[in-house]
Amino acid sequence: MKVWLALIALTLVEVALLRVNAGPAVMLALLVGLSLVKAGMIAWWFMHLREFRPRPLVWALLFLALCVALTVIGFLQ
Amino acid sequence: MWLFVVSDVMTFAALLAVYTALRMANPEWPRPFTLHPAIVFSTAMTLVLLTSSLTMVWAVEAMRKTDRRAAARWLAATILGGVAFIALHLTEWRHLLHDGVSPSTLFGSVFFGITGLHMAHVAAGTLYLSALATGVARGKFAAEDVETGGIYWHFVDLVWMFVFPLVYLMAVRG
Question: Which of A17, A40, A50, B29 has the fewest CB atoms within 10 Å, counting from its CB?
Answer without folding.
Answer: A50
